[in-house]
Amino acid sequence: MTIRYWKLSEDERRKIITELKNRGRQTLHLARKRVLEDTIVDPTARKTLRKCVSSWNKLAQPWLLSLACESVGGETSIANRLSTGLILLGGGLDLHDDIIDKTLNKHGTRTCFGMYGPDRTMLAGDYLIVKGLTTFSRVALASLPKRLAIKVIGILERAMIEMMDAESIELGFRKNLEIIPGEYLEMVVKKSADFEAYFRIGAVLSDADLKTERSLSRFGRTLGVLVILRDDISDVIDPKLANNRLNNESYPLPILLALQDAAVKSEMVRILRRQSYSKQDCRLLFDLVYKGNGLKKMEETMLGFMTYAAKQLEEIQRKEPLETILKAVFPPFHVLTD
Description:
Elements: H1 10-36, H2 43-54, H3 60-71, H4 77-101, E1 105-106, E2 109-110, H5 112-143, H6 146-171, H7 181-191, H8 193-205, H9 210-237, H10 239-248, H11 253-258, H12 262-272, H13 279-291, H14 294-312, H15 320-329, H16 333-336
Antiparallel strand pairs: 1-2
């Protein structure tokens, strides 16, 4: 696979969008229906849940799980039903993340946390997590041989434990200038356990051999890392995203990488130690990240992960769609650094 990942053609881009919508639309509708059909007496709780599901655009889980199945010759019907639980679970985890990160707005709209506060949002998140786990487990037990059902439930359980551990580690990184890039990357790898779970479950559902299961699992984990690192770049470039990230979350990797450059470190530290950040502060910080080779080092880091992910696909039957995903997640560094 030639490493020109940023050269995603318009045809490939349109195909990805179409696939996302086609594979995920029905499952997303079913997940919303599962929430809205429950009897919730408290009117504010109903409003909170309706707000959550109305803003969902969670198409990645059903798409990735079905692609994992297809890549090794599997059938996707059970994967699609399991994805309903994954969407509900992911929705609950997102609500908890919004509370932790104090995210008031997302994608131009007010979040549940921004509208209803932490208490209501926490309760809604608890509900969705329980709903997601029970839905996933019931589908697995009803649709698979007991041995395989227990295996896929165990895969999801281990992913949840690892993600919780990663989130807890990341809390210790907030406004912490002592964190080095290697520590941050270790946390990101742990945080990507959900992506590994999607691909491992897909391999299990397709009755793939152990070697193939491990290759797909490693690909999924690495893809998850790349998605997180791509978001890190957005959190440096966009002043609004940067402001919330600097105030409430860990410093993104491009900042940690640039801090290794003595020529810009003192000026960056001066900005980062402020209690609040203006747009001008965020733009100046981006300029310093660029001067400190934060983006260049980020490109090198991501290319390393891209190469590793591509290697995992060498013996996969139908790898072309997965290679296209790799192209899609790689940022256009040739534009960012011009």
